[in-house]
Design brief:
Shape: globular
Order of helices and strands: EHEHEHEHHHHH
Helix content: 40-55%
Distance between the termini: 34 Å
Number of strands: 4
Amino acid sequence: MKRIIDTHTHIYVEDFNQDLADVIERARSVGLYKLFLPNINTESVEQMMAVCNEYQEMCYPMIGLHPTDLEENYKFQLSSLKKILDDDRTAAKRFVAIGEIGIDLYWDDTKLKEQIDAFETQLEWALEFDADFAAKLAANKDYTVSILAIGRGGKKPRKDIAVWKEAKPYMGFFYDAYLEAPVFDEKFSKQTIKTVLDKFVAVYDP
C-alpha cells in the first residue's frame, strides 16, 4: 500500500464532529499516514489543536489566518495568532507550517490590499524558523533540489521529509556549516576506521 500525505484538510471543523473517528480510520485504510491541518482564524485554533492532540501520530497543525477570514481588525487577529505561534515555539513546538495563508478573491474581491498585507506578514513568520538554514537552501536552489532528489526515484522512493523541522537533520550535513565531527564506536580501531573511509572515498562520486 502506498503511503500518502494529505497536505491540506480541515477535518476539525464542525462538519466532522459526528464521524471524525471514522474519517481518520478510512484515511488510514487507504494509506494516509500524515494529515496537515491549516488553521482558519483565531476561533478555529482550539478545535484544530484538540483534533491534533487526539490524533498526534497522524494530524499536524499549521497556524495562520485564512485570507477570506480577514476582519476589519485583521491586524489584531494576526497579532493574536502570532502570540500563539511564539508560545508554541518555546513550548510544544507542534506547528509544522504557516497556513492557511495566501490570496483568495473568489468570494470577495474588495480586500485585496488587506489580503496582501496579511500574506506578507505571515510570510515573515515562516522566515523566522531557522532563517539561516532557509537562506542557505535558497542561495543555491539547484544544489538544494539535487539533495532532495537523492533516493527519490525507483520503486521505493525515500520519504524522509514531511515537514520543515525534518529538513535540517536530513540535509544539514551537505553544508559545511552544519557538519559535525563523526563519533565512532570505540570497539573499532583507528586503522579499521581509516580503511573503511579510504574505501568509501575511492568509490564516492560527488
